[in-house]
Amino acid sequence: MLARLVHRTPALAATAGYAAIVAVTFWPFWLGRNLITGFIASDQRHVYPFRKFAVDYLKQYGDFAPWNPYVLGGMPFAANVTNGDTFYPGMLLRLFLPVDVGITLGFMLHIVLAGTFTFLFLRALKLDWGASFVGGAAYMFTGQLVSLVTAGHDGKLAVSAFLPLALLCLYRAVSRGAWRAYVGFGGVVALCLLSPHVQLTYYLLMAAGFFWLFMVVWSGERPPAHRWWQSAVLFAAGLALGFAIDAIQLIPFLEYVAHSPRGAEAVAAGASSTGWEYATSYAMPPEELFNTVWPSFSGMVENYWGRNFLKYHSEYPGVVALILASFGFGLADRRRMAWFFAFLMLYGVLFSLGGHTPFYRLPYHLLPGINRTRGAGMIFFIVSFGVAVLAAFGAQAVLRAQGRVKRGVLWTWLGILAVGAVLALAGGFKGIMLSFADPSRIGAVEANYGTFVWDAVRALALGLAVLGLLATLRHKRLVGNGWFVAVAALVLLDLWSVERRQIRFGPAAERVFAKDGVIALLERDRSLHRILPVNRYSQDNYMMLYGVRSVLGYQGTELHRYDELLGGKNVWRNLGNPNLWRLLAVKYVVVDRPIQVGGLEPVDTAAATTYEGEPAYAYRYAAAEPFAFIVRQALKVPDDQVLPALMDSRFDPRRVVLVPPDAPIGEATLTALPEPVSLEVQSVQERPGRYRFTFAAPAAERGVLFVSEPWYPAWRATVDGVSAPVTRAQFALMAVPLPAGVREVLLEFRSERYRLGRFITVASVLFAAAVGASAWWAGRRGKRADA
């Protein structure tokens, strides 16, 4: 039956096998569990509110959310790629399924896709079904992919899954001179960008560029009629198409970068998200290369003792896959390709080590944008893919040789694994670990060592199992696809026995994020205001699920000026300043213990319970300012003088608004501070990113409407239906000039960059769809002609 299925529908048979493997290994999913909260440090725990916000907004308003007002004061939503895969097709899962179910299913589907795309790539290289199946299995369950569910990095998983498909498109494009395949490559690039993990997409493009160069120059598979310059033009056109499809996200994002912690202004101010020290942080320490053979050498998750601050991923490609890869050069008709992947693996290893070797100076200074990234170890997925490809080559070579391989290679492996097992059992590795571990992590070395010993013994047993499989082939007890399936099973058993530690499930999100006691206290107040959390909520986005605005939260690339207003990114020196509270319309403060501070009145004398089961106390700020109010005058002040003035206890935000020297409103000097305006402003959020302000009576004289929301170039205002400028005010917030007699102001986030990007994306998708349809039609006509 297997032979018949493989013969009739080889790709479908492989995909079905991969899907069955994932369905079994992720069995808690079928019992109603999900991957969001299985591990407290999972990014999905923090981004679930963003994902739900995006879905709810799209369902309610029929468009993508432009602005998120609920965390870190407020920030652009669609323009900020770190808010999640808003435009990626995977979002459809969350539109039609519960958000947590869609997220978990997305992880599982991308693992299957990684296997299928690797299988298709290897089949295009003319490998047997079985060898291709082995390669797909080795990649889909490699540590670099499966462990991403621990930290909740679905964007990384998507890009990793698309790497083999990108190379498949380039292989067909160059080897056949097929221009439509270059369009397909552009489509893959677009999906990676929309995922939207920009940094991993950069790494994928590096691998794709190297592969294209190899195919054009050295592979010997480029037809003479397909000239190198033609291929170069089509390769560039494919890239351009990919970026054009991503325009709906890319064009607004390019505008947003300038206002982020990694923008030019932040760099000039010496922000922490730039520079050599930042770029080389979270690279792979050289000693952690031991993890590729003994996966728990540096500890895993809670027991990680290595030199990075934290680490939730695994570099383990599998001992079985590594042994098979050692035989990959024995496949004579693919030796050049084997050398290419050996080079790609070496490049990936050197790059992943970051500043631990001089090599990283080259990409840091030569490749645009690399100096604004960190975590160079993320590139290791191309190493894992190289191992999987060479493992498939090796399996094919071993089958052709009927199990007769170079004994020196195999016995070297068995010797290394045997010595490793003996040393581990004797405690010999512990001294090495202790020499690298920080003194504060000695306990993690001790807690992890038992697992390491098990892994060392397990690796030796797997090496002996490979020897046994070679023997069965040599004595013809297992042959053909039967032998390949046995090899794939051993590869998967090897990887699963390690990576199962990384797959952690939790209950349904509606239970985990159920309304807690703090929300029950605060939701009674429906006015526009913010809360200042000084407990676990300060690094949490839970409150946005219930429409509660927070001064803080967890995001990573919030608006740079807002960070500076708070006193610096992740420092926030000004949080205790009452002037900041007034500027940000802080009405409630939440702490984890009772306090007695002047101006703070308890909302309830009893402790409330947070959704994590911790006690919390809510206090009302007696001097809270409204979300928007009228000020008589604006004063033009250079930025370097604004923050000290705003934080001065003598400053009254009700009497003057400080604006930049180039603002369309304001005076250069004031002889006296104007008196506060008593006219009441009613503030209504019609939807996120759209506010309506109405006045109790027509304004008696001209003034300035101050709004406690972060400024961004896309804000637009109309005053009684007439367009008016929106200027940056009080350093990071905004203001609108008011003429005398005004009754209403409409403030709306409306990005022209987004509109332009959307038009380009739609046009590009239609073009790509037309190319795909023409390719399908050409294929049908070809089959009819052959018939």
Low-confidence stretches: none
Major pleated sheet: 5 strands, mixed
Helix coverage percent = 40-55%
Helix/sheet category: alpha+beta
Count helical runs: 29
Protein model, in words:
The strands form five sheets. Strands 3, 4, 5, 6 and 7 form a five-stranded mixed beta sheet that branches. Helix 1 (2-8) crosses helix 2. This protein is globular. 50% of the residues lie in helices and 10% in strands. The protein is built from 29 helices and 18 strands. The model has no long low-confidence stretch (mean pLDDT 92). It is α+β, with helices and mostly antiparallel strands and 787 residues long.
Summarize the structure.
With 787 residues, this protein is an alpha+beta fold. 50% of the residues lie in helices and 10% in strands.
Provide the descriptors you would attach to this structure in a database record.
787 residues; five-stranded mixed β-sheet; five-stranded antiparallel β-sheet
